[in-house]
Structures are given as C-alpha cells and as structure tokens.
Amino acid sequence: MKNHRYFLGGTSPTGFKTRFGDTVFDTDYHTYIIKGGPGTGKSSLMKKLAKAFPDAEKEFYYCSSDPDSVDAVVFTKSRIALVDGTAPHTFDPEFPGAVQQIVDLGVCWNSKLLQKNKPEIISATADYLHHHGICRRYVTALSAVAEDTMQLGKLALNEEKLEKFTERLAKKTLPKKQECEEGIIMYRQLSALTPKGYLTNIPEDYTVYLLNDNLYYGSEKFLRSFTDIAVSKGYDVCVSLITILSGSRFEHIFIPELKTAFLTATPINNLDVSEKQPVNFRRFYDKNIVRQRKMRVRFNETAVRELCDEAVLSLVSAKSEHDRLEAYYIKNVDFDKVNDIVQNLENELKAVIH
After folding, report:
1. Of 40, 47, 108, 126, which has the fewest beta carbons less than 10 angstroms from its beta carbon?
2. Which element (helix H / strand E) includes 217?
3. pLDDT tens, 41-81?
C-alpha cells in the first residue's frame, strides 16, 4: 500500500506552525498522543507500529528539526493517528479516552538518575531553545525580504493574463464529474526548513507542474484560484503552506484523485525545474516594472538565500543540543518497558487497523 511523506509543520517568524491539530481534534479519528522526553522512544514507537501493519495505507509526518525522526503516523482508512504530543507541537486530549488518549513514556524513565544530570539537562535545553530563537530571527528577516519581493510581484502582475491561463489549465487538467459534491481543502506540509536545508517531499507517481516564480506573488495567486476551481468541481485539494513566510501563503497544492501536483520553485526552496512540467511565471509580469526594480529583486534573492543558509545552521546547532539531551535520557530509560507499551498498543490496534 502507498505510504505518504509529509512534515508535521515548520518554523515560522512566530514559532512552530502545524495544521496537524485538524486531525488530532477530528472526532472521526482516534488519536494516541505520545508524551515523553527526548530520546524516550516516541519516534521509534511510531515506526514500529507502522511496520507492524505493512498493508495499511499510512501517512508519515516527519520532524522538521530532525527529518529522520517521525512526529506522527496516520492510518488513513482506519482513522487512527499516533502523534508526538510534546513541545513545540504540544497536543492534549479534548475528549480524553473517547477521541484522544495519552501514551505516557515518562513511566519508563528513572527520575532519580535523571536528576543527577539536572544541571546538564537544563543547560542543554537552554542552548537548544537559544538556537531555535536565532533561527526564528533569521526566518523573520527572511520573511520580510520575501514579502518585499512579493509586493513587487503584486505590482507587476498581469492578473487578467494569469486568470485566463488558470482557467485554461483547469479545463485541461480537471475532468468534469457527474453530479458531484463540492470538494474539501486539506492541509499537508510538503516543505520545511530543516538542518539538512529547505526540503520538499515531492509526491511520488504524480504529474508535477513546477511553477518557476522568483517574485512569489503570481504563483501563490494561481494556487489559490486553481484550488477554488478544483474544489468547486468536486475535487479534494491538499494545500501545503509556506510556514517561514508571515500569514498563510500557499506554496504547493496537490490533488490525490488525479495524482497531479503544482509545486512552486522560488529563491527559498530552489526546487529543480528539470524533469517536471515547468511553468515560467515571468510571462505574467510586466517586463518594464520588473526591469526597473531588477537590482532590488536580485538583492532580495541573495538576502533570502543567505538568511535561509544561516537559519539552517542554527537548526544544525539546535539539533546538536537536542542530541545531547537525548543522550541523558537514553541511558536512563527502561526500554523493556517501552517495548511492552509498543506491544500492548500493537495488540490493541490489531482490532481496528485494516
């Protein structure tokens, strides 16, 4: 069965942002909220349970601070979700037991032994938060510069030309449905700023249109308009927001039913336009307006890339401190108890996952 890869969320000028609460607090799901410190086995628990049900269709949500670590797993057909409920994506039950339940890995650690490393744990936590604070400040600056470019894009955009293109492409790519209900919009994070750079999980086996737009504005407007058209024609659309910009800007969309995705390529994500179906958005901007401001655009592009690089370096430093924290917990956790919890959960889920 198909496994889908997303990020749980990403950093923003105001801190970590995620839309996974839409699932946690959806009463059609039963969500296991996993609590525990760094290195207590939350990610491993979810990976083991996912592996225990190889034939179930799953969504994997990875950690933007550590792309090798799983923050959530959703069994889509069975409506079962597992999620790391600790900071920065703290989740607590709204309907305890009935809709959400706590899985407490804190029962598996030895508090007395951890207290012996109290100064080191406090120091590593402070350093970890310090580096994330630096990252947010770089992201705030990056967001301001990108928004400046976006305003130039708004000024130069030929909206009528873009609107006609959007309508033509929608007619070409969205087959008519017979007596369909309006579709819905869902949020799935394809891209995020990580210690490995700005990464994008490109949907597999999809037809991908790559919107090459160094001014941001036109492609974002296209994505919103195309989403509205697709939803009105009965298609569900998954929207990926760009968290490092202020507001709720669209970065990518994809339509699972049609296996079609529209991804933007900007100075922030540097997506490669090769081997995709590129759409060059320069044709939708007034050349004279862009030419008059080309030095400003060029300066902003350089600034965005350099600020992004510095933000990545701060995340690398933050991960190093997180690894230091994990080391203190790993040596003071009874992983036999953790494995017992995993086994009990697996037995419980066998009755509901198919």
Report:
1. 126
2. helix 217-232
3. 999 999 999 999 999 999 999 999 999 999 999 999 999 99
Query: For the chain, what are the domain ranges?
Result: 3-109+333-349, 134-302
Which residue has tokens 């179906």?
277
Q: Is 266 helix (H, G, I), strand (E, B) or coil?
A: coil
Alpha-carbon gap, residue 33 to 23, rounded angstroms: 12
Give tens-digit pLDDT for 177-212: 887 899 999 999 999 999 999 999 998 889 999 999
Contact 208, 173 (CB under 8 A): no
CA 319 to the chain's CA centroid: 18
Total H helices, total E strands in the chain: 9, 16
Spatial separation of the C-alpha atoms in residues 100 and 82, rounded to whole Å: 10
pTM for the predicted model, two decimal places: 0.95
pLDDT band (50, 70, 90) for residue 333: very high
CB 202 within 8 A of CB 261: yes
Q: In the prediction, which pLDDT does 275 show?
A: 66
Encoded amino acid at 236, one letter: D
Burial letters for 56-79: b for 16+ Cβ neighbours within 10 Å, e otherwise?
Answer: bebbbbbbbbbbebbbbbbbeebb
**Tens-digit pLDDT profile for residues 254-266:** 999 999 999 999 9
Q: Tokens 């449905």 sit at which residue? A: 177
Of 301, 33, 9, 275, the C-alpha closest to 152 is 301
DSSP state of 197: E
103, 33 Cβ separation under 8 angstroms? yes
Greatest Cα pair distance in the chain: 69
For 107, half-sphere exposure in the C-beta direction (CA atoms, 13 angstrom radius) is 10
Rounded Cα distance between 242 and 269, Å, is 10
